[in-house]
Automatic annotation (TrEMBL):
Presence of the UniProt keyword Disulfide bond in the record: no
A Pfam family assignment: AAA_lid_14
Record lineage: Bacteria, Bacillati, Bacillota, Bacilli, Bacillales
Name of the protein in its database record: HTH-type transcriptional regulatory protein TyrR
GO process terms (BP): regulation of DNA-templated transcription
InterPro entries in alphabetical order: AAA+_ATPase (IPR003593), AAA_lid_NorR (IPR058031), Homeodomain-like_sf (IPR009057), HTH_TyrR (IPR030828), P-loop_NTPase (IPR027417), PAS-assoc_C (IPR000700), PAS-like_dom_sf (IPR035965), Sigma_54_int (IPR002078)
The entry's keywords: Aromatic hydrocarbons catabolism, ATP-binding, Coiled coil, Nucleotide-binding
Annotated source species: Pseudobacillus wudalianchiensis
Amino acid sequence: MNPSHDPVRDELFDIFESSFDEILVTDAKGVVIRVNATCRKNYEQIAGGLVGKHVKDLEKMGIFYPSATLKVIESLQPIELFQVSNTGRYFHVRTKPVFHSDGSLKSVISYSRDLTELMQLRNKIEEMEDELATYKKELKEPLEFEGLISKSEQMDKIMLLVRKIARVNSTVLLLGETGVGKSKIVRLIHQLSNRRDQPLNEINCAALPEQLIESELFGYEGGTFTGAFREGKKGLIELSNHGTLFLDEVGELPLAAQGKLLHVLQEKQIRPVGGRSPISLDIRIIAATNKDLKNMVGRGSFRRDLYYRLNVVPIHVPPLRERKEDIVPLTYHFLDYFNQLYESNVRFSPKVLQAFLGFEWKGNIRELENMVERLVVTGDEVVTLNDLPTDMLEQEITEAGTTLPEVIEEVERKMIVQAYNKDKSTYKIAKMLGISQSSAVRKVRKYIEEERD
Ligand SMILES: Nc1ncnc2c1ncn2[C@@H]1O[C@H](COP(=O)(O)OP(=O)(O)OP(=O)(O)O)[C@@H](O)[C@H]1O
């Protein structure tokens, strides 16, 4: 179009031409009468010229589909739709009818905005959200059964065994270090068994003095003690009839009590308190220990016959460091729990989770649980490596350091973190560590700020 010597017309034309949106105008029949530069740029070559063509033909050629103009001509209403071009681009199209003063249709104007990049980004985000959901599912949806998390192969096997033995009455012996979850498994076995509506009674053989263990287990007659206990008391064995009796730390059971227990297990009956006639026992025994019972048998501190009576179905629960796949799911499990309990929203940086994988966890799951609680209560919103207790990081150094430079770097990081926790000033840190301030600035950036990011 040549300059018209009408400045307003020229200006409107410039606006029309320079629009980033495609503008396409047709007459009342749908024949293109005007297109702007963006439209020409996108289609002219493919369509071999747009002006003079009917939108139906352009639709057939796949230049755009569906044609919004045709719909407007039909309905005489403005419409809005999404279109795909034959080059695979997405458009958001808004099309309006323009009327003569007598109400008849004069022309149809379409404005199309290219949303291809936006759609690609949206698809990418959706893909990433799907991926994230899958990872989260993997991490957060390990088998959780009655609050018991298991992701590792070892725990899978144990869970399988637990389901099997829950159905029968065999005596079970749980073996494993402290805090590996033996008691939790006992509760699960009871819960899954048909004794679940009967009592599960627990006695910790390490927590009570010898005489009390016996009276707890076997009860005592009235008159044995004075005062409040004068009446006599039923023992846990009698109270557990038809249910489950859990003997925790069974390795600590005194020899005399071991003998009495064996007798009860062999006879399958107990003489109830009060001298009444013996009652037959229908009781499931589950015992647990972190001691090497076999070794104790060899040394004579545990009765061999009782050991065999208890060791019908042994379950070895491995320490956490030998089933690292459980560490992250357990961490998330406890993190969710304590965040809810303390109404907080603490998260762990990936490096913290990484470090957790390297720790020894001598106290196993109990130690991990306590650590997560401590970090939720004391930490900021995002817990970083610097929030972990120094003794844990020391452990990490020995674990992480396979080469000298790695060990040196870990030591350096630890010293910087410690100094930084004492004083945030790089001047003071430089003085504390006997390095230049510029070196302190560099190292703080490396070990504190980058880790925080
Ligand atoms: N698989 C698990 N999923 C979730 N929590 C667990 C799991 N295993 C253990 N825990 C939790 O860890 C803590 C320690 O577990 P538990 O008391 O069962 O260990 P234990 O082996 O019986 O220890 P100890 O030998 O010292 O008695 C408990 O708070 C328990 O709820």
